[in-house]
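Methods — Computational structure assignment.
A single polypeptide chain was analysed. Its primary sequence is given first, followed by the predicted tertiary structure written as structure tokens.
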Amino acid sequence: MPIYMDRHNAEGATFADMAEAHRLDLREQRAHDVRFLAYWFDPERGLAFCLVEAPDATAVKDVHDASHGAVPSDIVEVDLDEVLAFLGRASEPDEGDPAAREFRPDSAFRTIVFTDIAGSTALTQRLGDAGAMELLERHDEAIRRAVADGGGRIVKHTGDGFMISFDRVDDALRAAIRIQREAASLHELLSVKIGINPGNPIGRGEDLFGTAVQIAARLCDLAQAGQVLVAGIVHELCDDPDLADRFVDRGRVPLKGLESALQVYEVRSDST
């Protein structure tokens, strides 16, 4: 079936309002032979967007009308791959009444963190297989604790590191600093590289994709042992003055896949 994107005027609405409206849409979708794939909410502009698989545009309008009455102002047929290349992850509310549970808003905005062990092959050669494995297990546990304490989510293990998602830039920065400090305390040979970039990644299952993810990965690749490199927007979005004092301007750096060079900062993880 065709894929449609619609636009709603949602001025004055909250994340909880959007979650409830989407929940009602999901309950009604089978009756109209449609399937809701994703939705996005921009509270600053008062706009909401739904991505819907439907037989036609009329079915998209009808399902909204039947579920909550907030019919879209515009409905356009779209190519799914093109949409997912530009928009953020889907926000799927839990089943049940949001008023009866603690609701955590999902703005689709994420701060993506990549970590990687620098010189892991040399580490194995120095410590041996058993010694290196034991150290890696301690390294992995330290990262999991830092992520959990910072309210983040480990998206996946990448071999010698992790891909991690945080809701807030400051939480990602604090976790990165903690990871660097704990890595240094675990063993003098253990050194971690970290790249951080915020944006609206694409969610498919538990994984995240898109430009925001790619830039974070490129920054991690660019980092030297013990470095935390971040995109310039991280500097702009950082609210904590103590964290802001840790930024060191590294200038504009060309990254693979980007048309123009990216402003990059290093974030010092030392205690000074």
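Note: Helices lie at 15-28, 57-67, 80-86, 120-149, 169-186, 211-222, 232-237, 241-244.
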